[in-house]
Amino acid sequence: DLHSGPMPRHSQPLLSVHPLPTSRCVSMDARQPSQEPLQDVVRRNLARRAQLERDGWLIVRVQARWRGYVVRRAVRELLNRAVAQPDLQRAKEYARSLLPRDQEGRLLPLSCDLACFRVFGDGVYCYMRWCKLMQFAFFVAFTLSLANLIHNVSGGELLSQHGTLLNRIFTATTLGNASTLNSSYGAVEVLVSAVFTWAMFAGLDITLKEEAASRSESDVTQADHTLLVSGLPPAATSSAELGRWFADFGPVSHSVVALANRELLLRMPARQALLQSLHDAQAAYFLARTAPHSSGWRLPLLAGFGHLRRGLGLGETPPPPPSAASAPSSTRSAPGEPGGNPYMPGASVAAAATAREQRLLLLRQAVQQASAALADHDRESLSMVKRRHVGTGLAFVSFSSPEEATHARTALSSPSYTRAYCGRRLAARRAPEPSDVKWENLEVTRRERWRRQLASTGVMLVVASFGTAIISVVCYIQGKNVLNSLTLGDGMRGTILSLLVNLSVMLPVILGNVMLFVSVPLLAEKLERHTTFTGKELAVMLKLVFFQVYNSVFASLAFLFDPSIDLFARPWYTTGGALIANILFGDAIFIQVVLDWVRVGGLFSRLCLAPRAKTQLQMDRLYVDDADIYLAFRVQLAGKFIILALMFGTAIPLLYLLAAFYFWLAGWIDRYNLLRRLSPPPRTDAALTRALCLVVFPLGMALHALMACLFFSSLPAEDAAEANAAAAAAAGAASSGG
Fold it and tell me: Which of 43, 376, 466, 550 gets the most CB atoms within 10 Å of its CB?
């Protein structure tokens, strides 16, 4: 039964066996003619082949095990060195890898076209185009107001006022310094209002066109395929059943019902912290285990050198201690044991080794404790996963094409569509981008969110009132002419001192605004519970605009409570008007440059915290400057400039130039931050820019028209009152003289 065909290559033995003739066989051992029967020869060769195969398999398995062990150990050591010995240069490269690039992999240049900002989504792109538009609009408004500004400077009504050099220059350009009003003020006001009206509609047109263009085939995202469905009963948690229900509108690629698992989702940051603690403990243990002994090579080397000196007669051997010499040999301590000969290096080596072992033991226990804490956390999370969760009433349904999603959304919004799901009528809208959804807040109902909004607004009103109190104290000090009484001199020294005095006035005001910057995002994150990142940004932006304008306007109008100052009379321009200019100047320089461009918090994290990180992962996270709600902060500051510049620009034309400078500088600061420093923010729609065009700008235009009427009517009334008072005084003097 010999196998006469070719054997598989992997099963061929080292010595091949072929059919032998029956009359003769060849011995494999002696290579001499053998008289053994053919069957015995074949049987012996088959047994040898089987033995060789068994031996070869065992050798291969042993070699595979050994090679695998060596490779795994080398890889583990390499990874430990890479993780436990972080490199700041790699953290810089990681942060740089997150920055936007062109199609060839190069960083986008700082002077790139505005179209490059489409990579950040509609929110950032529309904001950048809107800032460019506002820069042009305010510069044109200032150019149109130059005639009024020159007329104001030639008036000379406020030149006798005391104060810093910058305040005197500022008050000289205001409407309060004009001696008379002429028809050119009305004509310029009409032209300026027309420019701002055009800018408002142009900004809205930019937003609407960009939103329409983002729905084109070239910019289709997953959100265009998906619907956010609302109105589901809490018991309806079957995603498959919901997908079959929507299959009537077209092929459904994916459907999922959002469950009420907020508590489980909030455990993810806690797990991240526990995992970071475990990584830190493992890194500390690895560094301690692989660190060279501090005395492992020095003491033996010194001891050997000492023995060599004594052997050559170059030095004397110090006498041993009496306790060691007089003790019996059986009770003497070994050189390496505690209490041994202190002149022998073994005692120090043993002590160092003992201390090292104790440290390694403590670090190993820290690793075990961190690992146990992480395991307990995961075990509890797993038990929460196994619970039965009810639905939030929301679901996400994705279709194969955007047209099918649009068809389903149109059908559900039609009043004639009567089909129900689980006895309820469903509603649907375009789903937000996946990075825009705050999944842990989907179970919060709309009524509860409204209650939380009211509570947050009440808290912010208290905080804003405290900030207003700070600003009012500054206004009181300034109103009492404490600063105006300072004699700072002229020239460069006087200019520098006047600038420092203005900064001292702005700092408390900025402190009140910083309180808002800290409290508003914190309340939006912890209390309000928005379902989307865009909703959170919109709420933060609108509240910051409202409360900052509230602080500034209330502080500037507080001077009107002084009986000596009539409604927007000339003395108000040296107090309330100067305060408005100082606030906007401080925002344009301090807030925008120091807080938004320098970003002290990000620099502290990169320069102080990141170099002290124990793992590469922790260093990467600390070195990356996260954008988070950067866009909301930038938009709210722009909204503040819009309202205050429009509200007081009629009386203070320099505010138009200051606003144009702000928007010009904002464009470059945003370019640098978005293209060179910050990690890309979540992709959002143009809700913030749309709110500026539909809410903030119309409010600013309404206040602009109202305040223009008040400013233009206050000065003639003041002049008439002064003329009447002078006539009455003259008549009284004449009557007394007669």
Answer: 550
Q: Which two tokens stand for residue 422?
A: 């689980």
How many Å apart are CA 137 and CA 657, to the nearest integer?
10
What's residue 499's pLDDT?
63
| 3-state SS, residue 37 | coil
Q: In this structure, are residues 310 and 303 in contact, taking their beta carbons and an 8 Å threshold?
A: no
429/405 Cα distance (integer angstroms): 9
pLDDT surpasses 50 at 8: no
β-bridge pairing 427-430 and 226-230: antiparallel
The residue type of 16 is S
Contacting residues for 488 by C-beta, under 8 A, at least 6 apart: 164, 165, 494, 497, 498, 501
Token pair recorded at residue 135: 């820069």
Closest by CA to 541, choosing from 684, 334, 398, is 684
Say which DSSP state 260 is in. -
| Number of continuous H segments (helices) and E segments (strands) in the chain | 25, 6
Count of alpha carbons within 13 Å of 662, Cβ hemisphere only?
31
pLDDT digit string, tens, across residues 225-280? 899 999 898 888 888 999 999 998 989 998 999 998 888 888 898 998 899 888 88
- Tell me what pLDDT residue 68 has: 82
Task: List the one residue out of 234, 222, 212 whose CA is nearest residue 397.
Answer: 222
**Is pLDDT above 80 for 53?**
no
Dihedrals φ, ψ of 483, to 5°?
-80, -35
Answer yes or no: are the C-beta atoms of 431 and 228 closer than 8 Å. yes
Cα(108)–Cα(672) distance, integer angstroms: 10
What's the alpha-carbon Rg for the chain, to the nearest Å? Answer: 41
DSSP H or E segment with residue 725: helix 697-737
Cα torsion angle, 708, 714, 717, 719, sign: negative
Tens of pLDDT, residue by residue over 392-405, are 889 999 998 888 99
